[in-house]
Amino acid sequence: MQTVLVLDRDQMGSGDPDLGARILKTFLQKAVALQDLDAILMFNLGVKLTAADSPVLQELGMLDERGVELVPCGTCLQHYGVEPAVGTVASMDDIVSAMGKAEKVITL
Q: What is the set of domains in the chain, with CATH numbers?
C-alpha cells in the first residue's frame, strides 16, 4: 500500500465549518488524480462522509470507482447512527493495519 488518507472529521482543517466542508469537497474532486492513493480511512466525524446524504458522496464514489478503498470505522458509524452508502466497514484493527502498511499517511 502506498498512500492512505485519513479523514477524522467531516470538513478540512479547523475553523469555519462551511469553508471546511467546501474545501474538502474540492480536495476530494482533485484527489482522483492522485495515482498512488490507495485508501481513505475514516473515523470519528469522518464516517459521516459515507452517508447517503453526504455532500461529498459523488466524489467518494468517483474515488471508489478508481480503486481507492473507502474504509469507515464500524464503531464510529454505529456511534453516529450512520449507514454507509459507500465503503467497506472496518474495525480499528483494520485501520491500524492499513496505516502500518502504508508508505505515506496523510491526515486532513
A: 3-107 (3.40.1260.10)
Cell of 66: 478508481
Q: Strand 69-72 vs strand 3-7: parallel, antiparallel, or unpaired?
A: unpaired
- Is there a contact between 7 and 108 (Cβ–Cβ < 8 Å)? yes
pTM of the model as a whole: 0.93
Asked if 98 and 71 count as a contact pair (C-beta separation under 8 A), the reply is yes
In terms of Cα–Cα distance, which of 96, 102, 55, 54 is closest to 77? 54
Kindly calculate the radius of gyration of the chain based on its CA atoms and give it in whole angstroms.
13
d(CA 83, CA 101): 27
Each residue's pLDDT tens digit, 47-87: 999 999 999 999 999 999 999 999 999 999 999 999 999 99
User: CB under 8 Å to 26, separation ≥6 — which residues?
Assistant: none
Q: Are 98 and 39 in contact (CB under 8 A)?
A: yes
